[in-house]
What does this fold into?
Amino acid sequence: MKNEKENLLEIVKNILLKYCLCDNCLGRQFSKLIPGLTNEERGRILKISLLMNVLYSYKENEIILKKIILNSQLFDIIEKLNLSMEKINENDFKCYLCENKIKKENVKNFSQKILKEIENIEFKTFLIGASIPVEIHEREDMIRSEYGLITGEDIKSEINREIGKNLLNLTNAKVDFYNPDVTIITNIFNDNFFIQINPIFIKGFYKKFVKNLPQSPWICNYCKGVGCEKCNWQGRKYPSSISELIGEISAKIFEAIDYKFHAAGREDVDALVLGSGRPFVLEIIKPLKRTIDMKFLEESINNNAKGMIEVNNLCYTTKKEVNEMKIKSQKASKIYLAKVVFEKEINDKELKNLELKMNNITIEQRTPMRVLNRRKDKIRRKFLYYIKAKKIDSRIVEFEIKAQGGLYIKELITGDNGRTIPSISEILGNKASNIELAVINIEII
It folds into this structure.
C-alpha cells in the first residue's frame, strides 16, 4: 500500500470520501487480503467496519459520515441512524467503476439472459470470457495508483467468475478452461454477449469402392464453378465427393452449420481405398447437438453413401488429432494393389529382376505432368519398400507396392516420360498402358 503505516480503514475512508463504489468494486481492491470471501462480502465488511469506526471517531462530523454513507451506497442505514438528509436519488450514486453493472442482481439477470440463448444448445462444459471497456480499466488503475493499492484482483476475473457461478447453478454444465463445448464472450457493460459453439471432432476410416469419386469437391476447371457445357452446367467435374458423402449427413444429424474434412493423405480420383481404409477426422462446425451414438452415425453415413464409400471405427476425438494425423501422414507408408496392362508380353524372369531392383530404394520423382497445373514443379525423393509382381496374363500383371506416403504410384509404374526414376516400365522396357489402382493399407506410425 501507499503508506504501510496507514490504517486500512483510513485508506478505505479516503477512497469512499472521493469515489462511490459498490460492494464488489471496493472489495475487489482488497481481494488478496482475506481469501474465502466474495468481493461483495469483502466490500460490505469494509464499509460496515468503516462506518462503525467513523461513528465512533467522527461522531461530531456529520458531513464526513453522510459522504461515506452515500458513496458506500448504504442508503438503508440512513433512517436507522436518524440522519437528516434531503431526498436522495440513488441513481446519482452509481458505482464509479462498474456503474452497478456487476452487482449481484444485475449479474443474475444477465446470466438468465444468456441461459435463454443457450437453452437449445447441447453442452457439458463452458467457459466465460469478459470484454471490459478501456475506460473501466483506466478508472480502476487510477484508483489503485492514487492509493497505492497492490492487493486487488482484475475486474475481468471477477466478472468471469460471477457469471460462471450463475451458469453453474442454472445448468448441469461444468467450467472447462482448455476445451469447452461453448465459449461465451460477455460485455455486461453494454448488456451484450456472443456465444461461440466450439466444434466437435470425429475420427474414423473410410473405404472407397468406386472410381471417379474425388476426396473433396472438384470444381470444373473450365468454368471455375459457374457452370458450362463441359460440366453440363453443374459447375463441377464430379457430382459428389467423399467429404460430402461423410460430412453433409453428419452436419445434419448434429444440427451443425457446416463441416471440414481432414484426411491422412489422398488417393487419385480413379483409385480405390480398400483394406483397413484411410484415416480421417471430421470437424463438425457449430453443432447444436454433441452427443450422437457413433454406431448410428456410422450406419447413417454408410446407408446414405449407397455403396460408394464406407466408414468404420468412428469415435470422438480432439483438434489435436487433426494436427497429429497430418504430421504423421507425411511419414506414413502405404500398400497399393495395381493391375497393369503392358504393351508387350512379360516373362517371369523379367518380373523377378524387377522385384530385386525395386527393393528398399529411393525413387526420384519430379512433379507429375498431370498435376503440374496445380502443384509446384520440384523433385521429390520417396522411399520404396518393395514391389511384388503376380502375373495374371501374358501382358497383365498385378503389383503389390509398399511405398512412403507422397510417392505417385501411377508415375512409378509408367515413368512419366522420364520424370520418375527408376520406374517399372523403364526396368521392364515395356510401356504400361492401363492401370487400375487401389490403396489396401495405410500404416501411420
Observations:
- Residues 141 and 149 are 9 Å apart (CA to CA).
- The chain is about 35% helix and 25% strand.
